[in-house]
Amino acid sequence: MQAKLAKAHNHIPIGILMKTRLLAVLTALVSASALAAPAGTLYKDPHCGCCGAHASYLRSAGYSIKEEPRSDMPAIKQQYGTDKAPSCHTLVIGGYAVEGHVPAAAIAKLLKEKPAAKGIAVPGMPANSPGMGEYKPGTIEVVLLTKDGSVKPYGKF
C-alpha cells in the first residue's frame, strides 16, 4: 500500500507525505477551535428559573454556556465585582463578569472591545430583558463595572 501511495503522489516519500497530512489536520483543528463559540460559566441560584432561560438565550446567540448552581451567590458577586449592580446570576466569560440579563449584543461588544473593566451588568431583573419575557432590543440599559468599583453607562441594547 505504501508503494501505491508514493506512486499516487509523484514518488514523495511516505514519511513526508504522512507528516504533511498530519500538519494539515492539526492546522484545521486549531483553526476550528479558534472559531468556537465563546465559552462561559453562569453561576445561578439553584431555585431560579429565569437564569436558565437567559443561558438558553445566550446559547441560541452562539455562546457556549455552562450552568453552575450555587447557594452562595452574594459571595460570587463580591468575588467577581458585580455586587455594585446585582441581579440574579453572574456569567464569567472572556475574563469578564456579566451580571444579570445582559443582551448578547452587549456581551459581543464587551468581548470585542476588551475595555479595562471588571465587566458589564443589567441591574435588577427588567421584564423585557432576555430570559425575562419578550426581549425588546434597544430598551435594556447596560452598565460598565469599572476596575475601581464605579458603575458607568455602557449603552442601550
TrEMBL record:
Signal peptide range: 1-36
Highest rank taxon of the organism: Bacteria
Database matches in Pfam families: DUF411
Keywords per UniProt: Signal
Name of the molecule in the record: CopG family transcriptional regulator
